[in-house]
User: What shape does this take?
Amino acid sequence: MNNAYLLRSYHPLYTTGVLVALDRYGNLLHSCVTLELPWRDNAPQISCIPEFSYTVDARESDKHGQHYHVTGVAGRTFILFHPGTYTSQLRGCIIPGRKLLDLNADQVPDITGTRATLDKMLVALGATFRLHIMSAPLDGGVLK
Assistant: This one.
């Protein structure tokens, strides 16, 4: 099973991250940026999920097409990797994308290229992978 590592940076109104996926030999399979809701004690619909290791499975729905489902999140259901642009489109899920920008000038990052990024993830990572979520070693560009 392939492994993906989500290195998060927490902010009061959002959480950003870098996702790096490796094969069993340590070769890079995929990388992208991510956008999530802020940490609010794992409260459903308003918080990102806790740092932990999860199994992620591909699934399909009418709303999001092909995407991923993060399983085994304590106290939460239907945590997805799905396309989107704004944190207002999130209910605890993760949006993978190409670039973080403030598209609507609200001082909260938005994310671009999400459908294409998710499609590349589906090809690179396949039907199931292991997601390891942790805090980024950098905070504001300064090593912790």
